[in-house]
Amino acid sequence: MSKNIEFVGAIDQGTTSSRFLIFNPKGEVVATHQLEFKQLYEPEPLYRSYCTIPYLWSGFGRVASSSSVAAACWLAGWLPSQDAEESGAKNTYGTGCFLLYNVGEKPVISSHGLMTTIAFDFGDKGGCAYALEGSIAVAGSSVKFLVDNLGFIEESSKLSALAETVEDNGGCTFVTAFSGLFAPYWIDDARGTIFGITAYTKRGHIARATLEATCFQTKAILDSMEKDSGAALTELAVDGGMCNSDLIMQTQSDLIGMPVNRPAMRETTAFGAAIAAGLAVGVWDSFDDLKNTNTEGRTIFKPQINDDESAKRFKKWEKAVQMSAGWANE
User: Fold this and answer.
1) Which of 99, 220, 310, 317 has the least CB density, counted as fewest CB within 10 Å?
2) Measured between alpha carbons, how far is 283 from 247 in angstroms, rounded to an integer?
């Protein structure tokens, strides 16, 4: 924070990078720095813990050294990834996916494979809200799998273009259960399986089926959220690297039967942390001051297929999920 309380800094700490951003009171990014690093754990057989603070403050230091805005700062708010969403449902499409639905002031205990968590607690500035949370183990990492392991393309960013070389998935369904399936299925012994391959299957079909897998799992989580909350969602907000693909976002909207809202400024997790800090020190007095923040330049994707077609596709996905189970125990 600056001494005049005119700007808010937010640190977004991930598994492979640390990002620091400075927002002005309008929610606009005025300075940023990102530091990428290799994962510092051994996947097998044991994990090794490490302290992320040096990476956090390295990103902050790069910004502070080039911006007088960050000359005097203190930590005023800290949020785990995803909890920054004010209301409704938001899905972050990263290496994995993490979807939160704000259920309001009273916690809802899930009976459909989700977790209950605190969304935020801002006291008299915004109150306390609870959320239902669903996670997908494999999302962007499935794209990396096609690039690094199978050599489909040279860069992950080009997979969407490859998927668009075909009109549909050619009858292919890819259950990307590389390490089992998370919410809402919780099938530990499921493994990655591709169904529907024929002699006419092309790389584009597999690419499209890979991207669709994340969208199908997101629909499954949203369905569980509606059952647990007893309320129908009307829109899904999104962020994360995969949401840069128009194909993925349109597919997502088609499958869930509701608009998908993609903001122009997509660092919304960091922005949520900035909101927490800003409310704590008086940059904003309440959520009412933030109603029109980060709304300009957004893209709304609306469903282009009917509910019957969406249900037909999802039924085939659910069949594939059940057939992917049990492989780890054989």
Assistant:
1) 310
2) 38
Instruction: Compare 111 and 119 and report the one with higher pLDDT.
Output: 111
How far is residue 173 from each of residues 93, 211, 322, measured CA to CA in Å? Answer: 20, 10, 12
* Model confidence at 85: pLDDT above 80: no
Encoded tokens for 199 = 């002699």
Give the 3-state secondary structure percentages of the chain, helix then strand then coil, rounded to 5: 35, 20, 45
The β-bridge partners of 174 are: 194
Q: Tell me the CATH number of domain 81-263+298-330, given options 3.30.420.40, 3.40.50.720, 3.10.450.50, 3.10.310.10.
A: 3.30.420.40
Contact indicator for 209, 201 with CB cutoff of 8 Å: no
Strand partners, 152: none
Cα 127 to Cα 85, 237, 249: the distances in Å are 14, 21, 32
pLDDT tens per residue across span 95-115: 999 999 999 888 899 999 999
Residue 163 to residues 60, 152, 195, 246, 321, Cα–Cα distance (Å): 38, 11, 17, 11, 22
E strand map for the chain? 8-13, 17-23, 29-36, 89-93, 97-104, 115-121, 128-136, 173-175, 193-195, 236-239, 260-262, 299-301
Could you tell me the pTM of the whole model? 0.74
Return the biggest CA–CA distance within the chain: 67
Residue 261 tokens read as 């809202």
The whole-angstrom separation of Cα 203 and Cα 191 is 21
Residues 7-32: tens digit of each pLDDT = 666 666 555 556 666 766 565 666 66
Which string of DSSP letters, residue by residue, matches 158-217? GHHHHHTTSSS-TT-EEE--BTBB-TTT-BTT---EEE---TT--HHHHHHHHHHHHHHH
Bridge partners, 273 (sequence order): none
Interatomic CA distance for residues 209 and 171, integer angstroms = 9
* CA–CA dist 114, 108 (Å, integer): 10
**Tokens in use for 109?**
């205990």
